[in-house]
From TrEMBL:
Family statement: Belongs to the glycosyltransferase 8 family. Glycogenin subfamily.
Cofactor(s) essential for the protein: Mn(2+)
Location of the protein in the cell: Cytoplasm
GO process annotations (BP): glycogen biosynthetic process
Superkingdom of the organism of origin: Eukaryota
Official protein name in the record: glycogenin glucosyltransferase
Signal peptide stretch: none
Molecular function, one GO term: metal ion binding
Function: Glycogenin participates in the glycogen biosynthetic process along with glycogen synthase and glycogen branching enzyme. It catalyzes the formation of a short alpha (1,4)-glucosyl chain covalently attached via a glucose 1-O-tyrosyl linkage to internal tyrosine residues and these chains act as primers for the elongation reaction catalyzed by glycogen synthase.
Enzyme Commission number(s): 2.4.1.186
Coverage span on the entire protein: 1 to 274 of 364
UniProt organism field: Synaphobranchus kaupii
EC category name: transferase
Alphabetized UniProt keyword annotations: Cytoplasm, Glycogen biosynthesis, Glycoprotein, Manganese, Metal-binding, Transferase
């Protein structure tokens, strides 16, 4: 039975991230989610991208860009593009839903993860770089205009210690680390690909149980080249991936080119990403 008051939510502020969002939506539907799917887009997302997203998501919702412009902090992290991630905060304004799961556009959903809706706000998995912080690529939340206003006020008055959404959300939901273990999602719901470099034995041990893989960091699947004939993925500079990441990269591209199920659309025809 479809659940109409709960939704998976993602975000794309440009066409590149829209490719990621498209894969998020396709995977959710292919794995038979009973929840709604929503993609928030901003004014820079082209009509072509919106049309492709509209064939996959129940709702394509236009939101305002929110940008920290906190260049000093983001440059320190080497990720000046992340200021716009504050736009994510608009997900709290989706009050037509009583509970939602936010997914970054750079995740690959490997199976049905509807059980995430059993969790309460604010649930998230640890960040691999600083495990007392949560990673904001996958989280369970309850839309509320009050919380939305409080978050925007926080952004205006105190900013974010990393210049992006993750720093702000960690300061705002500061009890996460210690208060309630049920709000700690298992790492397999947000398996950062960086774990391959930081803890390879654990990745080998638990990686096969992964439910959501997160291509955290500067290199995203859509930055890579994909040879559809050979079904091979390459990095732009010709180098290859860590061999443990390669299957996920390849799967992302397989999902990307997967035709959208006929029950909700015609054939998928968005142009080849370059
Ligand atoms: N995002 C976006 N446009 C951008 C940067 C980020 O739409 O230019 C959104 C997108 O949903 C993305 C999320 O914000 O997945 C967080 O950014 P990213 O995944 O690049 O950060 P990371 O997970 O690598 O820290
Ligand atoms: Mn991400």
């Amino acid at each position: 039975m479809p659940v109409t008051d709960q939704a998976f939510v993602t975000l794309a502020t440009n066409d590149a991230y829209s490719q990621g969002a498209l894969v998020v939506g396709k995977c959710l539907r292919r794995h038979g989610t009973s929840r709604q799917t929503v993609v928030m887009v901003t004014s820079h997302v082209s009509q072509g991208a919106r049309a492709a997203l509209a064939r996959v998501f129940h709702q394509v919702k236009e939101v305002e860009v929110l940008d920290s412009s906190d260049w000093a902090r983001l440059i320190m992290m080497g990720r000046p593009e992340l200021g716009v991630t504050l736009t994510k905060l608009h997900c709290w304004a989706l009050t037509e839903y009583s509970k939602c799961v936010f997914l970054d556009a750079d995740v690959l959903v490997l199976c049905n993860v509807d059980e995430l809706f059993d969790r309460q706000e604010f649930s998230a998995a640890p960040d691999p770089g600083w495990p007392d912080c949560f990673n904001s690529g996958v989280f369970v939340f309850r839309p509320s205009l009050q919380t939305h206003n409080q978050l925007l006020q926080w952004a205006r008055e105190r900013g974010s210690f990393d210049g992006g959404d993750q720093g702000l959300l960690n300061s705002f939901f500061s009890g996460w680390a210690t208060e309630d273990i049920s709000k700690h999602l298992p790492f397999i719901y947000n398996l950062s690909t960086s774990a391959v470099y930081t803890y390879l034995p654990a990745f080998q041990q638990y990686g096969p149980e992964a439910k959501i893989v997160h291509f955290l960091g500067a290199i995203k699947p859509w930055h890579c080249k994909y040879d559809r004939q050979k079904e091979e993925v390459y990095l732009g500079d010709g180098s290859t991936f860590h061999r443990h990441l390669y299957p996920f990269m390849k799967q992302w591209w397989t999902e990307y080119w997967q035709p959208v199920a006929p029950s909700f659309t015609q054939t998928y025809t968005w142009e080849d990403p370059e």
